[in-house]
């Protein structure tokens, strides 16, 4: 099993969510995040004063997928989140040792299906 974390633009969330659902990966967790990367800072006006904003608002999507669904998950995120510009985001992949469904105490691959 793998944990896939994708940091994407907020405007791409619906497209990625629909793509993952259509690909048979309906389970995901979404977290609003702020961060900085290669994009330059920008300025905003707040209560009449101009402030330099270094952190950009993004969305982090987390999915736990079986090894056989990993490439499908990654390709779906890439296809639905890319604008071809700096700031499109990143995808991180981690190994997952085990998963347990609390309600039924099911373990392993059956717990994430």
Automatic annotation (TrEMBL):
- Output the InterPro entries linked to this UniProt entry: N-reg_PII (IPR002187), N-reg_PII-like_a/b (IPR011322), N-reg_PII/ATP_PRibTrfase_C (IPR015867)
- Supply the Gene3D superfamilies for this chain: 3.30.70.120
Q: State the SUPFAM superfamilies in the record.
A: GlnB-like
Q: Name one Pfam family in it.
A: P-II
In Swiss-Prot or TrEMBL terms, this protein is called: P-II family nitrogen regulator
Q: Which organism is it from?
A: Flavivirga jejuensis
Upper classification of the organism: Bacteria, Pseudomonadati, Bacteroidota, Flavobacteriia, Flavobacteriales
